[in-house]
Amino acid sequence: MADKVVLLDFWPSFFGMRARIALAEKGIEYQYKEENVLQDKSPLLLQMNPVKKTIPVLIHNGKPISESLIIVQYIDETWKDKSPLLPSGPYQQAQARFWADYVDKKVFTSIRETWSTKGEKQEAAKKEFIEVLKFLEGELGDKLYFGGESFGYLDVRLVPFYSWFYTLEKCGNFSIEAECPKLIVWAKKCMQRDSVAKSLPDLDKVYNFVLQLRKKIGLE
């Protein structure tokens, strides 16, 4: 009996993109169900994630898995016959998880503050955002991907944010490439993979979405 896989997601979500990329990397067929989490959440979402009521939620043979970090690891461990996302060595795995945690705690917050504020707050957010990216650029070094020669776990965790870079540059009037050129080279390399290119939304679509959010909070 074939696995039944369903993904509850919201198209501009960084976290949902991670699940999409991981599923695509593993070649897993799944049913995509769009959730508009800014309006009414579906009964299915509330049933499958009653604690946090957030996306993404992966439903595998009727059983829900929530939180993008857990979902990506679950996908990697469940479909082991496909190319692994996490590195094989315990130390390498620990390092990948450390930087993934850093991404979630630092990148998301600084991105949100950059597009959702203005004036001094936005300038401070932009400064922090670039500092965070420079740390990540240092970890990348001269490697092709964060794990070395192979696209893997940390790449899956970080590359979805690239889909919002254009929006941040427009909202904040700055150039990410000028500050972190190696990171942009890495992101463009990732975008050459079908799993990434087909999982990340159009840049203009993201920008228009954020413009509407900025209008709602009185910034436009």
What attributes characterize this protein structure?
220 residues, alpha+beta, Glutaredoxin, Glutathione S-transferase Yfyf (Class Pi), Chain A, domain 2, 2 domains, four-stranded mixed sheet, 11 helices, globular
What does this structure look like?
The chain has 220 residues and is an alpha+beta fold. It has two domains: 5-78, 3-Layer(aba) Sandwich (Glutaredoxin); 90-216, Glutathione S-transferase Yfyf (Class Pi), Chain A, domain 2 (Up-down Bundle), CATH 1.20.1050. The chain is built from eleven helices and four strands, in the order E-H-E-H-E-E-H-H-H-H-H-H-H-H-H. The protein has a four-stranded mixed β-sheet with strand order 2-1-3-4, covered by helices on one side. It is globular and about 50 Å long.
Short description:
The chain folds into 2 domains: about 5-80, 3-Layer(aba) Sandwich (Glutaredoxin), CATH 3.40.30; about 90-215, Glutathione S-transferase Yfyf (Class Pi), Chain A, domain 2 (Up-down Bundle), CATH 1.20.1050.10. The protein is built from 11 helices and 4 strands; from the N terminus they run E-H-E-H-E-E-H-H-H-H-H-H-H-H-H.
